[in-house]
Amino acid sequence: MADSERTNKKINWAILVTGWGQNASDVIKLFNKGSFKKSDLSLVVCESEPCGAKDMAEKCNIEVMKIRSADFCGQNTYQNHLIENFKTRNIDYLLLLGYKYIIEETMLSAFPNRIINIHPSLFPSFLATQTAIQDAIDYGVKVTGITTHIIDDKIDRGIILCQEPIKIKPTDTLESLYPKFSKKGKKIIAKTIKHIENRS
């Protein structure tokens, strides 16, 4: 590939989501608005319905695949199926937004250092938990936040890409903090995608 072709080639992204997908919906809208000059979003993989990310992707004419882990005999078979679909679409990077499954070695090998996750805490605090926001409140910390990181073979580890702090007030609850995470989540994901663009 010539240098000019390499420079002009856009990064091809897929988003994986297993829940409603609020952050994913926000990011899909950013892609649709042309917020990322060096990236395209080609595929959204969801698992359940209703799914806001699926609805938003369809509205923006982005391909959606509904693939249920339960329809496969195990995670390895399920993730190998995902890999096949990603490879046929020439996907470069995977963005996990509210994706609940642990990434297997086969997928790590297929996309080395190209699988990005968002976690609702400031690494290295409140790792390997599905309740990081509530854990931060219960522990009494004054500041929590969001981290985006490259996935590796350890849960909630890997290379930190971006972090965004969120202050916790004494009166805050999970319900009052969640909108802050949603708002900051959109910001940090956009920052992360641009970070990947700049280093590619």
TrEMBL record:
Record domain Formyl transferase N-terminal: where: 13-192
Known EC number: 2.1.2.2
Biochemical pathway: Purine metabolism; IMP biosynthesis via de novo pathway; N(2)-formyl-N(1)-(5-phospho-D-ribosyl)glycinamide from N(1)-(5-phospho-D-ribosyl)glycinamide (10-formyl THF route): step 1/1
Enzyme class, first EC level, given as a word: transferase
UniProt entry tagged with the keyword Transferase: yes
UniProt keyword annotations, A-Z: Purine biosynthesis, Transferase
Identification of the protein by name: phosphoribosylglycinamide formyltransferase 1
Organism: Mariniflexile aquimaris
